[in-house]
Amino acid sequence: MGWAGFVVVFGLAIRSDVNDDARVLVMGATVLAVVAALTTVVAIDRGRPMLAGGALVVAGIAAPTFAAVWFDLLPVGVGLALLVRSVRHRGSVLTQP
Fold first, then answer.
1. d(C-alpha 65, C-alpha 96), whole Å
2. What share of the chain is helix, strand, coil (3-state, %, to 5)?
3. 92, 36 contact by CB (below 8 A)
4. 67 CB contacts (<8 Å, ≥6 apart)?
5. Most C-beta atoms within 10 A of its C-beta, which of 22, 43, 44, 53?
6. 42-58-63-74 Cα dihedral, nearest 10 degrees
7. Cβ contact 34:7 at 8 Å
C-alpha cells in the first residue's frame, strides 16, 4: 500500500511538469503502477507470493519516477526476490518423490 500511495503522490506532483501529449502516458503509467501495487497487497493476503512478486515488479517499472528512478529499485528488488523465492520453493516441491 505504501508504494501505491507514493506513486499516486508522485504522479500527481509531476503531472504539471509534463506537456499535454505526455500527460496521458504519465497518468496511464500511474494508474497501472497503482493497480499493480494493490494487486500485490491482495496476492500477499491470499498467499500467492509469485503473483505478488510479478505485480510488484510491474508496479516498480511502470511508476513514472523520471530522474528519481532509484526509487523504483526497492519494489523491483523485493518483487524479484519474491519471484525467485517462489520458483525455488515450487521447484523443491516438484522434485520430491
1. 44
2. 90, 0, 10
3. no
4. none
5. 53
6. 80
7. yes
Q: How far apart are CA 38 and CA 15, in angstroms?
A: 21
* Residue with the three cell numbers 500467492: 48
What would the pLDDT profile of 18-57 be if each residue is shown by its tens digit? 888 888 888 898 899 899 999 999 999 998 999 999 999 9
DSSP per residue over 18-33, as a string? S-HHHHHHHHHHHHHH
pLDDT digits (tens, 9 = 90+) for 57-84: 999 898 887 767 788 888 899 999 999 9
Q: Tell me the pTM.
A: 0.79
Q: Give the span between the Cα atoms of 25 and 40, in whole angstroms.
A: 22
Cβ pair 29, 63 in contact under 8 A: yes
